Amino acid sequence: MNNAAKTLVRVDNLKKYFPIYQGVILQQHVGDIKAVDDVSFVIYQGETLGLVGETGSGKTTVGRTMLRLYEPTAGKIFFEDTDLTEMQGGDLRKIRARMQMIFQDPYASLNPRMTVGSILSAPLEVHGYWKGREKRERVDNLLEMVGLNPDFVNRYPHEFSGGQRQRICIARALALNPDLVVCDEPISSLDVSIQAQVVNLLEELQHKLGLTYLFIAHDLSMVRHISDRMAVMYLGKIVELADRNEIYLRSLHPYTQALMSAVPMPDPDAARSRKRIILEGDIPSPANPPKGCNFNTRCPFAKEICFEQDPDYREIKPGHWVACHFAEDFL
Amino acid sequence: MARYILRRLISVIPTLIGVTFVIFMFQRLIPGDPAVAMLGEHAAPENIARIREQLGLNRPLFLDRDSLVQGDLGGFFDSQYVRYLSRLVKLDLGNSIHRRIPVAETLGLRFPATVELALLSMLIAIFVGIPVGIISAARRNSLIDGVSMMGSLVGVSMPIFWLGLMEIMLFAVILGWLPTGGRLSTGVQIQSITGLYLVDSLLTWNIPGFVDALKHIIMPAIALATIPMAIIARMTRSSMLDVMQEDYIRTATAKGLAERVVLFRHALKNAFLPVITIIGIQAGTLMAGAVLTETIFSWPGIGKWVYDAILGRDYPIVQGGTLLIAIIFVFFNLLVDISYAFLDPRIHYD
Amino acid sequence: MAEITPQDLFVTDFAVREHRSLWVDAWRRLISSNTARLGLFIVTVFVASATLAHFFWTYDAKTDLDYALKLKPPNLRPTEEISTIHPFGTDKLGRDIFRRTVHGGWNSLRVGLVAVTISLVIGVLLGLLAGFYESMEITQGERVLLQGLVGLSLGGIIAWIGAQWVIALLFGLLGVLSIVFGKFLAGKPVRIALFALGGLLIGGGIGLLGAPMVGLVCGLLGAVLGAILASPLTGTFFSNVVMRAMDIILAFPSYLLAIAIVAFLGPGLEKGMIAIGVVGIPIYARLARSAVLSVAQKEYILAAYSVGEGHDRIIFRHIFPNILSPIIIQATMGLAGAILSAAALGFLGLGAIPPTPEWGAMLGDSYKYLSSGAWWAVLFPGLAIMFSVLGFNLLGDGLRDALDPKLRV
Amino acid sequence: MTPLMDLKNLRVRFHTDEGMVKAVNGVSYAMEPGEILGVVGESGCGKSVHALSIMRLIQTPPGKIESGQVIFNDRDLLKLSESEMRHVRGREIAMIFQDPMTSLNPVYTVGFQIVEALKLHKGLDEKAARERAAELLTLVGIPGARQRLDDYPHQFSGGMRQRAMIAMALSCEPQLLIADEPTTALDVTIQAQIVDLVIRLQQELGMAVMWITHDLGVVAEMAYKINVMYAGYIIERGQVRDIYKKTRHPYTIGLLGSLPRIDEPPGTKLVSIPGLPPDLLALPTGCPFYARCTYRVERCLEENPSLEEADGVEHTVACWRWEHIAGRVSS
């Protein structure tokens, strides 16, 4: 993906802190969980940007804050040229039609008391573009598009399997013809054989409808498979962002390198012969991140400066962004 | 943990203020003039005026705006509610209308009788209810389980005053084994130390006194214990069943521990938390149930007294009794929350 | 051997579970359980007999009196002495207990039903809103409303002291202003000081019109209120106010509070209904709130937001249908509890006014005759209470199993 | 060499309201001492149930071991009395579970839970048991082990808890460790730590390990042999290289095809398995994979193939057409 492509979303210095309150009588604000801490990136029209990170890295929060499902603490989010952080009420609801989301848990993201038909027609009703017969046809259409039998409109979500439910979620996200779809771990609760079905469907739909994806997941190989470019998050910050091949072959951040080497490989020869970097210890709590570089508690290369100074997130070569003091040394 | 306990303690204060407020507002529920309601329609006007003055009924309820306009800041705050609160702090609950004696004094005198009854009932409820619940859970869907759960459902559905009457009919009227009511037979004396006759008679080694007290207390105690016993048994069972689904129970079994150890060491402690909550609530409810039970068995406790007061429209007694029981109820709930801190290690960090 | 392509397999082989709505599913589970069927049977018998008796078996309690038949034991066959049949015997006024028990059912069940309806409607509404606004960010419009109302109502106290109702309006306006200019000096102490000053001027200035002391008090209170209004209130505030009020009702054992309320209100069936109903509110409010809190965590609520659905749709289409199960269960059990409470009130002479037949009152009337051997006057109304309560409890237990979310996929 | 464990025709059923769930349908295989066996399959394939049946931890009712033998150290575990079985559990066969967050009792300290097992099986006194527990925690790589004995499980991170679980399982030096998806709930970097730890411990202590997982990637680098399970059957079994390199069952082929690889070249398409796993309430009489199989013929609908020798060492496949498939895959 070259930089000449049209920018669809630009996120500038986005922060989302969840305050922690404590106190015996009056609740006092004693600190923050820095779920997203100063994150900047762009998403180009028609591409898939992958966002990987482990538990607590803030990847889900990035997706939700980007759609203003959470109020951002600071920073700007531009969708085309409009600043989402300035929008309110009706305007926001209108623009939400153009940015949709697919959620992680297909069992929790469909209302068990609503039929598939009413789940899919809800967005159509709210925005009022389709009415009566057109609406019903649109619903049938959507179901066919995601590979479900349109006769299922009057069924309830509990009558479907996880993979089928996730298809319904995809259909709902596509109901309003969005430009951007944030896929928040859409496959992590599905079985392996079903995962591939859903990923193939997503790819096919992107092709057909010209969608732009932000694909959030913890499964590195799957993110690499589906993305054009990918970003790696650690403790609320993006540590590295680059093209999918660049980041695999020439990653410049020790965390990315460790992550890549830790990914299981379904090939006994390759798995046994490769060099693995086993990281020590656990991910620190985002309520109490270490001083200096976030990764210094586990980094095999940490030097003095890493414990004092937060590294800049910089474009080290065209399209390859990294936040490490010694990134130049890995070049 | 200290922080948690402190926080719970402090959170009780607004509740207690609310409780006094509600009880204070009871007076407003009386249709017409409370003073007339107390003295009757035909009371002399000067008596009514005296009562009104005595009870401060001619003061405003909360704040006196007129005093403020005159520049009297003290008078502004001198209201019925403030007076009521300041009397409460001095443990003055007012006087009984009919008997003209302080309510607090009589409450104090009658309190031990109620406590003794409630305590014994609670012990019965706990020592029967919990084992029944455990056995039912351990032998789920067995005959024992079916019978005890059906039994406890009947127990929950039991009008306790009716159960009391049935007991009297069977054991007192038909069989004649037990006395119909009261706390002691005439002529039996027990030296009062704690006010609890069962304890006092044992402390003074007064065996005939103990037996007599026991004979009197056993029927009301069982009647009162029925509902909490049934509720505790049901709660213990469902909580045990929940816990037994947990992964750590499977871990314990996979370690090779005997079923008994898994049940009593690993399941019970976890299952106990909701049971404790129920016990706390039931302990408070027992005091309220005492109004009915004490009435039927002529038990000279607070409940019977409040009942008589309701019939006699002796409002200060009803207010005082209600306040005391509500405070005990709040106290038990507090106790439950604090006991959590000792039972659940996770709470230290909340 | 022709091989099949994945496309051929795609749509045809979808194993979908049998089509059934969740309610139909629950109903099937309900009637497949023995306890629930027994409960349903008992409840039906009581409801049907009471209703039929009320409409088709005339009974005038005021004229029902026959001293000749005072306290006669049950007889199933006319004898020389008693020419009428009394399957449950007669009471102290010679009234047929069977007839009174059947008619008493109408009153007892009615008290339970009305009381539960009162607690259910108010409690669920409060709990639903409290839970919703606790877990959701409120919209700008709701924020203006909330802040304006808080300004208005707290300002009302100051207005009452100052005897100038315009003060309340001004405080309402101050609250709204705080929202409209939410970003103005946000988070800075200066903002609080400015609003406090505004409150001081509104309260003190207008209060001074009355008397100096009034101006002083109103000004001080106004300053405090102004400072409070400086920070925009959140939904949590609303929820806290509601739930603290509920806590206070819950601080009383429910029996006792109902008894005390009726003790002060004076006896009567209607008063009993209200008292039992009011006392039950917090149970439903708490239940609804905690159910809403757990439902609000679900991703389908977030999904509804992200397709642009508004608060009204989210509350009534997404949240409400999903919290119904625990409320239905509780309402059934609550009916059992309310019937018991009503009987207790009646027994204490605080419920139905004689001679209206009501189970608790019938017991209260007759228990003094127990020592003279009239067991039937006590046994039958008591059994009626117990069985009707048991019926609702059984049904509630069955409903819990049928609607239990843990069993649902 | 006599096998450590010999499973013969194990069948497990669950009697539910909806009907009888055929969870495990005649599973037979043998495990050598000191071997690492990978058991792979998607959810509902019976892999966990068969492991729990070996330990006799199936909840009865609704579960029931219908038939079969579990010969372990020359005796049939399924015929032992409950008290004899208790001596097997924890001492001869130990087990660790999927979710370390819920597998430790929250109201007892980690130390207590390890000491409990040591006292039970080793007859150690309190002091010696504590000493040994601290050693075990050190062995599994928990820093400051002695102090951490008195911590409650909620004070441990997920990875630490799984380490503690492993320490507990190892406390009595079992001959077989059954690990039931031990890393599924953990992050990739933590998963790498745990895998590394188990491989190291297996080499040091020489026990056999059964690693149950849905991820063909995880077991590729450590297992000697792999059982692939589907709908309660083992459908392919063999040495690890044969399974990955000479894959013969269409399900295994599909499973491998639907797994993206971190080292895949751009433009790779995932091969998904269409459809859904069969309903265990109503298993077809023929091959359970029939409905999803692209190689199916009429015979597959009528007869269920049993495991037969395929090419490769100890490689068995349950498919009528494996030879035909072998020809196609290699070409």
List keywords for this structure.
heterotetramer, A: 331 residues, 8-stranded mixed β-sheet, globular, B: mainly alpha, 2 domains, 15 helices
Please tell me the overall pLDDT of chain C: 82
Q: State the end-to-end distance of chain C.
A: 40 Å
CATH homologous superfamily assignment of the largest domain in chain B: MetI-like
Radius of gyration of chain B: 25 Å
Q: Which CATH C-level class of the largest domain in chain B is it?
A: Mainly Alpha
Q: Rg of chain C from C-alpha positions?
A: 30 Å
Outline the biggest β-sheet of chain B. Answer: none
Q: Unreliable runs of chain B, pLDDT <50, ≥5 residues?
A: none
What does it look like?
The complex is a heterotetramer of chains A (331), B (350), C (409) and D (331). Chain A has 12 helices and 12 strands. With 331 residues, chain A is an alpha/beta fold. In chain A, the strands form 2 sheets. An 8-stranded mixed β-sheet of chain A has the order 6-7-8-3-9-10-12-11, sandwiched between helices. A 4-stranded antiparallel β-sheet of chain A has the order 2-1-4-5. The longest helix of chain A is centred in the middle third of the chain and has 18 residues, at 192-209. By secondary structure, chain B is mainly α. Chain B has 15 helices and no strands. The two termini of chain D are 38 Å apart. Chain D is α/β, with parallel strands linked by helices and 331 residues long. Chain D contains 12 helices and 12 strands. In chain D, the strands form 2 sheets. Chain D has an 8-stranded mixed β-sheet with strand order 6-7-8-3-9-10-12-11, with helices on both faces. In chain D, strands 2-1-4-5 form a 4-stranded antiparallel β-sheet, covered by helices on one side. The chains are: A alpha/beta (331), B mainly alpha (350), C mainly alpha (409), D alpha/beta (331). At the B-C interface, helix 1, helix 4, helix 8, helix 9 and helix 13 of B face helix 8, helix 9, helix 10, helix 13 and helix 15 of C.
